[in-house]
Amino acid sequence: MKRGTALLLLADSWFNLALGMLGPIYALFVQEIGGDLLDASLAYFIFMITSGIVIYIVGLWEDKFDHKEKFIIAGYFLSSIGVALYLFVNNITMLFLTQIVLGIAQALLTPAYNALYTHYLDKNKEASEWGAMSSTWYVVTGLAAIAGGFIANSFGFKTLFVVMFFVSLISSFMSLSLLKRKKLMKKL
After folding, report:
1. Which domain holds residue 14?
2. b/e code 57-83 from CB counts within 10 Å (16+ = b)
3. What confidence tens digit (pLDDT) does each residue in 53-95 have?
4. Which end of the chain is more exposed for a tag (fewer CB within 10 A), N or C?
5. Residues 6+ apart with CB under 8 A from 103
């Protein structure tokens, strides 16, 4: 596995750990701010539709640029901001706005991440390296679900969001290494 592939996997693992903490208990949070199951479904819908529409547009745009690393970095940092916004969510409207921010962040991140990950794949190891990505996602997200449930149950959602924010910052700052790596590769 190339160093670039490993770096992407590691950064994404921290990112998935952060966001995965909320997944299984999301509806409980929505209920805590006065929403119901339909509001939770609508918030998820807003995130997915925002991501789906913007991801296509951004993907076309990203093909024209040689700096996919910058889109990955922007996506991770905007995701961290989106996670921080959860600290201020006290009504459904603010939740929906947070979901839009997170959807845009995902749209910046995903096409560039997938393109760069594909670029770094070792020849004749594509299946195992895509398998490593999927495997890592499932394991980390599973661990995140337990951690998030424990933190929210023991200390509340505000504490959970603070933890999620700082964990997401790890992936954000780790992704900065992609630029350093690109500069080093150009020198070789």
Report:
1. 3-181
2. ebbeebeeeeebbbbbbbbbbbbbebb
3. 999 999 888 878 778 899 999 999 999 999 999 999 999 999 9
4. C
5. 46, 47, 48, 49, 50, 51, 54
CATH code, domain carrying 129: 1.20.1250.20
The answer to whether residue 186 sits within a structural domain is: no
* Helix-then-strand count for the chain, H and E: 8, 0
**Average model confidence (pLDDT) across the chain:** 92
> Does any domain span residue 79?
yes
* C-alpha distances in Å from residue 103, one per residue of 47, 125, 132, 135: 5, 31, 25, 23
**What SS3 class is residue 30?**
helix
Residue 187 lies inside a defined structural domain of this protein: no
Angle formed at CA 84 by CA 79 and CA 88, multiple of 5 degrees? 135
The 8 Å CB, 24+ separation contacts for 50-58 are: 50/99, 50/100, 50/103, 50/104, 50/107, 51/103, 51/104, 51/106, 51/107, 51/110, 53/107, 54/103, 54/104, 54/107, 55/106, 55/107, 55/110, 55/111, 57/107, 58/107, 58/108, 58/111
Q: Does the CA dihedral 105-130-170-172 come out positive or negative?
A: negative
Task: With respect to residue 188, please indicate whether it lies within any of the assigned structural domains.
Answer: no
Predicted pLDDT at 65: 77
